[in-house]
Design goal:
The chain is α+β, with helices and mostly antiparallel strands. About 35% of the residues lie in helices and about 20% in strands. The chain has 2 domains: about 1-40, no CATH class; about 50-95, no CATH class. It has a 4-stranded antiparallel sheet with strand order 1-2-3-4, with no helix packed on it. About 5% of the residues are buried.
């Protein structure tokens, strides 16, 4: 998506939106730069994390929980899949499309 945005090969209305937001919202430009920088970083995903308790719902689908090491983590509200530490940018790290079969859930479980 970053390459398509930089090469300006997205649909016209999308590019118009990006251009307009870039002119008026410095934090939008900053977020786009973070996305670009993220592509160059090596991401280390959390492994072997056990959730010791949920703290609160961040969104309809994401909860903030505490793990067995006392860290705050962002987890799937449905299956407790750990996305990242709570202080990391979940918008970049959260997969948009997930293969639920790979984590032992079937299609019916995901529709509830």
């Amino acid at each position: 998506m970053v390459k398509r945005r930089e090469d300006r090969v997205l649909p016209g209305p999308v590019m118009d939106y990006i251009d307009e937001q870039s002119r008026f919202c410095p934090s939008f430009v900053e977020q786009m730069e973070k996305e670009k920088d993220f592509l160059e970083e090596k991401v280390e995903f959390l492994e072997d994390v056990e959730i010791s308790g949920r703290l609160f719902k961040l969104t309809l689908y994401v909860d903030i929980a505490k793990d067995n090491k006392g860290r705050k983590v962002a987890v799937c509200g449905k299956c407790s899949y750990v996305y990242c530490l709570a202080n990391e940018d979940i918008k970049i790290l959260t997969p948009i499309l997930r293969n639920y079969e790979s984590i032992g859930m079937d299609e019916q479980e995901t529709s509830n």
